[in-house]
Amino acid sequence: MISTTQPACPASASTPADSVIQFDDVFKVYPMGSTQVRALDGVSITFRRGEFWSIMGPSGSGKSTMLNLLGCLDRPTAGRCLIDGQDVAHLEDDQLSDVRLRRLGFVFQSFNLIAQLTVSENIQMPMHYRGMEDDEAADRAAELAGLVGLGDRLGHRPAELSGGQQQRVAIARALANDPAILLADEPTGNLDSATGTQIMGLLRRLHEEGRTIVMVTHELDVAEYSQKQLHMRDGRVGRIVGDF
Amino acid sequence: MAGTRIIRNVRLGIKSLLLHKLRSSLTILGVVFGVGSVVSMLSVGEGASREALSYINRLGASTIIVESVKPQEELNASSTASNRWHTSYGLRFEDEARLGQLPNVIRTVPAKILSNRQARVGELTSNVRIVGTTPVWFDLIKRPLLAGRVFNEQDMNDGDGICVLSERAARELLPNSGAIGQDITIAGAYHFRVVGVIKADEGSAGGVQTPDQPYDFYIPLNVDRQRFHDSDLQKGTGSFSNEIVQLHRIIVEVDGVEHVQATAVAARAALERFHGRLDYDIRIPLALIRQAQATQRVFAIVLASIASISLLVGGIGIMNIMLASVTERTREIGVRRAIGAKRRQIIGQFLIEAIVLSFVGGVIGVALGVCVPYGITTFTGMSTTVTAWSIGLSLGISVIVGVTFGLYPAQRAAGVDPIIALRHE
Q1: Fewer CB within 10 Å of terminal CB in chain A, N or C?
Q2: Which residue in A100, A115, A133 is closest to B339 by CB distance?
């Protein structure tokens, strides 16, 4: 599916074999009136497979821009963005969609389930976009719902679920196509602290099972669940905290 | 696999539309009326066209009708000069023979017509139209024989006072007894014996009257001449007129539809030589009916076009609602895009919703479009015909309307920037 005109270079000299995200001197510049705003100002960082990162920083620090680029929703102005070995900086819209579909899983702050679909159908959605057969997709959805503890809620609509349950469905949906990276944007932001703790527990479990997770948050206690923390400041990498 | 994907998309579309039942039904209603009126209008046009065709079959398409007409100068004289006058005009007996000799003519039927004569049987009276003709009439204008027989060459030779009645005249004059053999008095003086009753097929299509009428009284032409002569004396208040006309009508049968036009021209030329003035008129039912059919076709197209305007309005309704839906569901679109949906998958989703709306409207509209002509026929007697092609066409158009008016909103949806859409509340 991925265009072969863009040679993937998973093992080039500067790329560690186990890196899943690698940013090399990435810039993102937005025009604002007559001036230009540098949302990212030469970011270089590598996330390895199986790591659990949180990206932190005050508003305007560039963490949302980081998330957009990590999520292949946007292209950098300059620099190289390798996602699972693929340089996404110059991909067409359809190819970016494909990277999102197959290699990334999104978990949003406000769950973002489709209201008119059941739990099972919500989880199946990415599989259908990939062209999976109905039966196979339904089976996998049931399996994933079981994994997040909602095996008995398959026929429910999002409106019939609590916030925590909805976020679990969203996590199951993010795992639908077995992505290389799970991206979470303030996953506990709309939840009370007890439910938030449960969701973070679930993410930690997924990490322990080998998933690569990148989470954007501004809450320190949430960030503590992660292995490593990237603090952004003025569009640059501020400091990196964590066990190495 | 593409099939299951479409079915899934249709199901999803229906689910999304059911979220706003009232809004969706109102949108569908626009298409319902559009398709319904297109189907009904086409059926009205088709009905009229078929009626004309059936008329051709009843009359026979390969005939030319030559009629006596009071010339223009006589009409002018009547309005200006005296209150009593004699006029003599119209077709003559020799004309029939002349027309019969034209190429491609199979046979001719003369008719001497006296309208509004009182027929009496005992106490019962009825105003009939006396048609003096030959046996060929019944052969050319085939009508079901209800009782007895029509007259033949032998009757012509015998010169007896016999008649053939149309069904309605028979019912009115002889309601209780068998009509055959009964005696009917015309104008208090002339006696005729009924030999047969036929079913008249009166009516018109495209402005052409059938040659027979409901109260017809057919007698042999030579008997007609003997008893009523050639003059038609009409008395009015303080005036009378005496019109001398030998034959009122000659029906000419041609050996094929393709020769009708040429024979009509030849007939005109033949008559012109012997008539000093224009006291006859040649009418070609086929041409008149064709003209009428063409007019009706235009009429039907105009009706259907007007109806399509309502379909257009229905389409605009769909576009309006789909645009609202796209705006409302910006966030859903953003989520789907972020998860990995391609632009064309979003286009497909919204396009299918628009098509579902218009197709459902189309199906209900066809149902309406079948019922309305039924009602029109029941209440106005106008003939209507719903054809399979008009239904197919309307359903096809409704889908095209869905695609046409759904495409722009769908493209708007696909053009949504996921980053902005995800921030959308």
Answers
A1: C
A2: A100
